[in-house]
Design brief:
It is a single chain. The protein is α/β, with parallel strands linked by helices. It contains nine helices and twelve strands. The strands form two sheets. The protein has a six-stranded parallel β-sheet, with helices on both faces. The chain has a six-stranded antiparallel beta barrel with strand order 7-8-11-10-9-12. A hairpin with a 2-residue loop joins strand 9 and strand 10 (234-243). The longest helix has 20 residues, at 288-307. The radius of gyration is 22 Å and the shape is elongated.
């Protein structure tokens, strides 16, 4: 997969089959469109091309937005890489770009820059200044400029109820099962392990503190999760706490992972933590001994969960 960080840097001698959008989450609905895109390009001896944007348009157009995204841009790239896509264009979204009329977008971007043969879009796609153009407008432009328009209907995507917004809500209320079902993979967090206060080590549960640099990444509901991560080439199971560690009298929210049957110096390592199940709410215990007792219960549940897979 070739990656271009601006439309102007895109170069190809082949015709393109194109789809476009923000693709936050690259969820099962997105995957359906991308699968069709890749298949269509192969059948037509063309190149499959996705035009996506960063930052997210709402981050630019709604200055007070509190939107949190399912993927960092690096995570989104890693998900696209698994699809068999030929070209990924990540265009910087700004106010000037948002002011392009629908026809300017089609003529200047799709025709002149992307050398489009066909565009494949979802059932509810809108584009152009203020998102005023729809599938009917796009079809007319196709007739005018000589490209095909293929629409994937809501009926074709059986999971049509899926949306990035619904997945965000599911994660925020702790419904990880639904979120993972909609995503088609386990929601994950990517960050760097940094040194903490090492209080977990004193009760037999050393933790790796995960620092996520991107402040727009959606952090799920606070609580305890069953997780795993690839460490030293192996999948290592663990449990993760998102919260303030109230028993230890802390205030700032942290993300801490206790890996089962694994103890190594991970400081400075960048890792991906995959979330499998929401285990319980974060609690304040009257003593460290009661906390340790609960953590042992969590550990047993974690073992039981993975053993049942």
């Amino acid at each position: 997969m070739k990656i271009f960080h601006n439309i102007s840097s895109f170069e190809s001698n082949s015709k393109s089959i194109v789809t476009l959008g923000t693709f936050d989450g690259v969820h099962i609905g997105h995957q359906k469109i991308i699968e069709r895109l890749v298949q269509s390009a192969k059948a037509d001896n063309a190149e499959s091309t996705i035009l996506t944007f960063f930052p997210h348009p709402r981050m630019v157009l709604q200055e007070q937005t509190e939107i949190r995204l399912l993927n960092t841009i690096e995570e989104r790239i890693s998900l696209f890489e698994k699809t068999g896509l030929d070209n990924l264009i990540i265009h910087p979204f700004d106010r000037d770009f948002s002011r392009l009329t629908a026809e300017e977008f089609v003529k200047n971007i799709l025709i002149e820059k992307l050398n489009i043969r066909r565009i494949i879009i979802g059932h509810d796609h809108r584009f152009g200044r203020n998102r005023t153009a729809d599938i009917n407008d796009l079809t007319e432009f196709g007739l005018l400029y000589g490209f095909e328009v293929e629409q994937i209907s809501a009926q074709e995507i059986q999971e049509a109820a899926v949306s990035s917004t619904k997945i965000r809500h599911a994660l925020q209320v702790g419904n990880l099962t639904l979120a993972n079902q909609y995503l088609g993979y386990n929601y994950f967090l990517t960050g760097t392990i940094q040194e903490g206060k090492k209080l977990g080590r004193t009760i037999g549960f050393p933790t790796a503190n995960l620092k996520i640099e991107e402040n727009y990444k959606l952090i799920p509901k606070q609580g305890v999760y069953i997780v795993d991560a690839m460490l030293e080439g192996k999948s290592i199971r663990g449990m993760m706490n998102i919260g303030t560690n109230p028993t230890l009298g802390e205030n700032a929210v942290s993300i801490e992972v206790h890996f089962l049957d694994f103890d190594a110096n991970l400081y400075g390592h960048k890792i991906q933590v995959n979330l499998y199940q929401f285990l319980r709410e974060e609690q304040k215990f009257e003593s460290l001994e009661l906390l340790k007792k609960q953590l042992n219960k969590d550990k047993n549940q974690t073992h039981a969960y993975f053993n049942s897979l």
